[in-house]
C-alpha cells in the first residue's frame, strides 16, 4: 500500500443540527490530534471552533446555503461574507438545485460568482456542493462543466443530508466533465477506509467525513502514516 498522509485529505465534519458545544469541542480536539486538513461546522459554531483551532494548522470551514441551496444569491453572498469575517478559511456552498432542474445555469453561475467575488477581499477556498443524489447523470455532467467556468476551487458531491452520499459513479461523471483545475471533494457516507481510499485513487482531493478519527486510526493500524 502506498503510504499517504491520509489525515491531510480529511475535512472532519459535524453539521448535525443537534450538535452541542461539547460535540464541537470534541471534533476540534480530535482534528488537532490527528492534524486533519480542516474542520467543517455550521456558521453558528465558527467562533468556538476558531478559538479551539487557534495555533494549529487545521483550517476552518463552514457551510453556506446548507443543506437545500435555495436561499438565493444575495443571502448566500451575505452569509459567506459574514462567515469569512468570523474566521472561516473555507466555504462549502450548496448550489441552487432548483435552478439546475430548470436548466437555468446562468443563475447557478451567478450565485457561485457572487461568493467567489469575496476572494478579492480575503483569500479562501470555495467548494461548491452539487448534491449528486438529486441530479441525473446529465445534470451532474452539465453542472461540472459550468462550475469549471467559475472561480470555485472544488466541486463537492453531497451535503450528507439527502437520500445518499457519494458514489464512485458520481466521481467518474465529474472527472469526465470538469476542468483539470477544478478539484473534487467527496462527502456523504464515507465511513469505511477502503471506500475512502477508492475515492482518493479515483482522483478525489478532499474527503468530508464525520469519521475522521476512525479512518486515520484504521489507516495507521494497516501500516499507514499519521503524519505526526
Description:
- This protein has 228 residues and is an alpha/beta fold.
- The protein has a single domain (6-221), classed as Aldolase class I (TIM Barrel).
- The protein has 9 helices and 8 strands.
- It has an 8-stranded parallel beta barrel with strand order 1-2-3-4-5-6-7-8, surrounded by 6 helices.
- Strand 5 (125-129), helix 6 and strand 6 (154-156) form a beta-alpha-beta unit.
- The longest helix is centred in the N-terminal third of the chain and has 14 residues, at 21-34.
- The mean pLDDT is 96.
Please describe the structure with a list of short key phrases separated by commas or semicolons.
8-stranded parallel β-barrel, TIM Barrel, alpha/beta, globular, 228 residues, 40% helix, 16% strand
Amino acid at each position: 500500500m502506498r503510504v499517504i498522509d491520509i489525515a491531510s485529505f480529511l475535512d472532519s465534519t459535524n453539521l448535525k443540527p443537534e450538535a452541542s458545544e461539547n460535540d464541537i469541542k470534541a471534533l476540534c480536539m480530535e482534528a488537532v490530534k490527528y492534524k486533519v486538513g480542516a474542520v467543517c461546522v455550521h456558521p453558528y459554531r465558527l467562533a468556538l471552533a476558531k478559538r479551539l483551532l487557534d495555533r494549529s494548522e487545521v483550517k476552518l470551514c463552514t457551510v453556506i446555503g446548507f443543506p437545500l441551496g435555495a436561499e438565493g444569491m444575495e443571502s448566500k453572498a451575505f452569509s459567506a461574507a459574514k462567515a469569512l469575517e468570523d474566521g472561516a478559511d473555507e466555504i462549502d456552498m450548496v448550489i441552487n438545485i432548483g435552478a439546475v432542474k430548470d436548466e437555468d445555469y446562468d443563475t447557478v453561475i451567478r450565485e457561485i460568482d457572487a461568493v467567489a467575488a469575496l476572494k478579492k477581499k480575503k483569500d479562501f477556498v470555495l467548494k461548491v456542493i452539487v448534491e449528486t443524489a438529486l441530479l441525473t447523470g446529465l445534470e451532474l455532467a452539465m453542472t461540472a462543466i459550468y462550475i469549471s467556468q467559475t472561480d470555485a476551487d472544488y466541486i463537492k458531491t453531497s451535503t450528507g443530508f439527502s437520500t445518499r452520499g457519494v458514489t464512485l459513479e458520481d466521481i467518474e461523471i465529474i472527472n469526465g466533465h470538469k476542468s483539470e483545475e477544478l478539484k473534487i471533494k467527496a462527502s456523504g457516507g464515507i465511513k469505511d477506509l477502503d471506500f475512502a481510499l477508492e475515492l482518493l485513487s479515483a482522483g478525489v482531493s478532499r474527503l468530508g467525513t464525520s469519521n475522521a478519527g476512525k479512518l486515520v486510526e484504521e489507516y495507521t493500524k494497516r501500516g499507514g502514516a499519521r503524519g505526526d
